Amino acid sequence: MTGRSSTPEPEPAHGPVREPAHQRALRAARQALRVLAVELGTPTEPGTPLLDSVRSPWLRRVPYVVAFAFAVSLLPTTITVLSHDYGLDGGMSGALATAQTVPLLLAVTRPLQAWWVIFAADVIGALALAGEDGVVGRAWPWPPMEIVGYLALMLALSLRERRRTLTAVWLTTGMAGLLSEVFTPEGSNSTWVLMFVLTGVVLMMGATLRERGDAQRKLIEQETISEAERARRTLLEERARIARELHDVVAHHMSVITVQAASAPYRISGIPREAEEEFGSIAATARESLAEMRRLLGVLRSEEAVRHDGPEKTPQPGIAMLPKLVEGTVRAGVPVELALPEEPVALEPAVDLSAYRIVQEALANVVRHAPGAPTRVSVTPAADGARLTVLVVNSAPSAPSAPLETTGTGHGLIGMRERVRLVDGSLDTGPLPDGGFRVAAQLPLPPPPYPASSLSAKDSHPA
Predict the structure, then answer these.
(1) Neighbouring residues of 225: CB distance < 8 A, sequence distance ≥ 6
(2) Is the peptide bond before 344 cis (omega within 30 degrees of 0)?
(3) What is the pLDDT of residue 455?
(4) How far apart are the first and last CA of the chain?
(5) Checking DSSP bridges between strand 387-394 and strand 437-444, what pairing results, if any?
(6) Which of 38-42, 302-306, 393-397 has the highest mean pLDDT?
(7) Are residues 174 and 47 in the same domain?
(8) In a domain? residue 457
(9) Using CB atoms within 10 A of its CB, is residue 113 exposed (0-12), middle (13-18) or buried (19+)?
(10) Which residue range or ranges hold the Histidine kinase/HSP90-like ATPase domain (predicted)?
């Protein structure tokens, strides 16, 4: 049987062949140059002005003013120094000075592209000055005005680009200075080390300032989001609390319906069989509604409340319990004057509960924010019998003192607004000129029932 054997060939006794050291170094150098090229060729947010996220329009104009000042001051200075001090040709001096200073205006929106132009112009200028006699005894390869312009560019670059790009720029500047040692004219003062050190310092300082600003900006954004989420959670908690309280009110009426419908055949004699079945269907539907409400209440109750408090079994309060509430507030150190209607007022259970809770939260706010302030509470039905006015007014505290414990169960004004909205009422709150505070709620009253005589008259005279 012919064919090639699938058995792998044994490795040499001395192990796998290792790549020579010079090849590994060459490959690492190519990889480093590739990374440098990528970082130097990928600007961050090109076209976006520096300090564009600042709210003040005056601060947003600062980079333009600074760049214009550097360009206008360095352009004639560079031309003068290159032509008179270094002896460079006038046309060449003008061209190099323009390429080294005018791109500073571009650095406001595209600092990395401006660096390419200025860095190339600086390198060309260093090569042009190497053959001039005026370089003897003077700074080379970077004259003083080029160092100033380059550092200004580094500041703009550090406020925009990421750290890897800044490192690439710094290393490129250092490599250019190191290579300049080969062409250093005799008698010149080498400035590439100074340039390398100052560039690193400016880039580090600018990057630190930018990252600190970014961190503060993100912190403000997170605080804004957290505040919005906190307000939303507070609103949801208050609505869930109101729903739990209304459960007791509605459950009471549903229980009455269930008992009346189930006991009707035993309390009323001579009811037809069809009516008995109808009463039984009503009782069954009411019981199902109660079961659904209990399940809903289980969803609305938090796990912590279910674990520690258990089901709420106390009846919901109303305006009849306001004297007891005021008495507890007075014992806490707040003088409260209460005015209630002389005659009992027929209120719907939801309105009765909302009136009590509004007064409770208003008194809790007085205890919290104005301890010891004289307070007046009044519950007054309107003359037309269409609405109920709940008014809580407190004066400014006579002397500041430590806040006392609160007795409210909701979230202050948020809870008041939600309760008023629930019963289609209105709420007016605000500070008073004397330093006090006013809470006024308008709650609807149920329409008066028709008298029996009017009902019989309607039945006897159909339309």
Answers:
(1) none
(2) no
(3) 40
(4) 114
(5) antiparallel
(6) 393-397
(7) yes
(8) no
(9) middle
(10) 354-446
Do 106 and 186 share a domain, yes or no?
A: yes
Yes or no: say if 271 and 246 are a contact pair by the CB < 8 Å rule.
no
The count of structural domains within the chain is 3
d(CA 41, CA 22): 28
Alpha helices in 181-272 (DSSP H): 192-267
Same domain, 339 and 389: yes
Residue type, 457: A
Q: Indicate whether 373 and 413 sit together in one domain.
A: yes
CA atoms of 100 and 149, how far apart (whole Å) = 8
Closest Cα partner for 128 from 174, 178, 183?
Answer: 183
Q: Measured between alpha carbons, how far is 80 from 73 in angstroms, rounded to an integer? A: 12
DSSP classification of residue 240:
H
Determine the residue type at 142: W
Per-residue pLDDT averaged across 355-376, rounded?
Answer: 88
Give me 119's structure tokens. Answer: 């860095």
d(CA 132, CA 123): 15
pLDDT digits (tens, 9 = 90+) for 51-98: 887 888 898 999 999 999 999 999 999 999 999 999 999 999 999 999
Judge whether 31 lies within some domain: yes
Report strand pairing: 437-444 vs 336-339. Answer: unpaired
Q: What is the CA radius of gyration of the chain?
A: 42
Helix, strand, or coil (residue 27): helix
424, two tokens: 């289609």
| Residues 52 and 116 placed together within one structural domain of the fold | yes
Q: Give pTM, 2 decimals.
A: 0.54
Which residue range forms the structural domain that includes residue 280?
Answer: 234-308
Map tokens 């007014």 to a residue.
Answer: 393
Give 375: exposed, middle or buried? Use CB within 10 Å, 0-12, 13-18, 19+. buried
Is 78 within 8 Å of 145 (Cβ atoms)?
yes
Whether residue 112 lies inside any domain: the answer is: yes
Contact criterion met (CB below 8 Å) for 397 and 325: no
CA distance 198 to 181: 18
Contact 75, 102 (CB under 8 A): yes
> How far is residue 46's CA from residue 380's CA, in Å, rounded to a whole number?
67
Render the burial of 47-69: b for 16+ CB within 10 Å, e for the rest: eebbbeeeeeeeeeeebeebbee
Beta bridge partners of 390: 379, 441
Residues 288 and 360 in one domain: no
The length of the chain in residues reads: 463
Residue 413 belongs to some domain of the structure: yes
- Contact predicate 359/325, CB 8 Å: yes
* Co-location of 343 and 283 in the same domain: no
Report how far Cα 391 is from the mean position of its chain's Cα atoms: 36
Asked which of 128, 158, 190 is the last residue of a domain, the reply is: 190
CB atoms under 10 Å from CB of 315, counted, come to 10
Distance in angstroms (rounded) separating the CA atoms of residues 367 and 343? 30
